[in-house]
Amino acid sequence: MVLEVGQLTLITGANGTGKSSLYRSLRLLAEAAQGRLIASLAAEGGLSSTLWAGPERFSRGMIDGTQPVQATTRSGPVSLRLGFSGEDFGYAIDLGLPEPMHPFQRDPEIKVEAMWTGETLGRANLFAERRGQSVGLRNSDTGEWRRALSNLLPFDSMVTHCADPIDGLELLLMRERMRNWRFYDTLRTDVDAPARRPQVMTYTPVLSSDGADLAAAIATILAVGDSGALQEAVADAFPGAGIIVNGDDYGVVEMRQPGLLRSLGAKELSDGTLRYLLLIAALLSPRPPDIMILNEPEASLHPSLLDALARLLIRASRHTQIVVVSHSETLIHSLRDKYDVREIALCKRLGETRIEDHDPPRWVWPKR
């Protein structure tokens, strides 16, 4: 599947159409820059857990229902391919089965990696290539290739092992950009959520993936970020309300609400209210990432908050490319009404995830 995302992209579709799988694919791609890709795949069941469970090809009869779906002879190698590109750089990785006698059979091997300038891979714009254990880098001035490594282990990526400020500057820049991608799908709001407890007050420009450092993140926005936008976002969702962080060494988030004689601490806030404050802290980060991916941000939110969430997402998309995975019709309609959002609607045909009415961009995978 090849898809094109915009500044604010909405991934929609019925349950079981592949929204969560698409989200995990993006996360796996980012983990290549963290050195965690192979371990993450192994934890999810190995390469086999990611592979298509249907036939390699559908015949015309299978599609129109005149012939039962049946296995076909595999013509290509077992492969999991992930990649992305933009106006400046692109990257792709191809993973396959390990050797039969490999001691860790859940660990796939990295067969090929490629990094290039521009949107589409070609020989002229390729500047880093990994094949098996060998990595080649091209000099940007002379165009000459040199071998950077000849013994790279099959579970190590060239993104983490060949990026340095002298010989692999482009790789280094791309690695840091990929490490800056942010994913939010585990923001905790239960009664024992860390965000409800006092937290060490330290400079925190980026909210953690589980929201444990909410108080410090909010205090950082108030001190060095767009404090006005933060209070506006709170008042937009909860008219007349405002938030403060109370405490010096250890702080807690508190919300002032009209009609109450005291502020309510994080322990007293509803799950939906706390989740909204977590989304504010994530989306109004003083250090916006290149891309942020949110999986079902509407979870636990009352429908009355979704208009305000749509406005918050639109505001954040001025500085960050945002991908939202959602099946909330209220949020979807609100975003459609307020913004020229790029919508990618997933559907299923014979178990295969497909994109409705989508003209995929040109894409070239590196060959083994």
From TrEMBL:
Keywords from the UniProt entry: ATP-binding, Nucleotide-binding
GO term, biological process aspect, one: DNA synthesis involved in DNA repair
Pfam family, one: AAA_21
UniProt lineage: Bacteria, Pseudomonadati, Pseudomonadota, Alphaproteobacteria, Sphingomonadales
Boundaries of every ATPase AAA-type core domain copy: 8-332
Protein name from the UniProt record: ATP-binding protein
Top-level taxon of origin: Bacteria
GO molecular function, one term: ATP binding
Organism: Sphingomonas populi
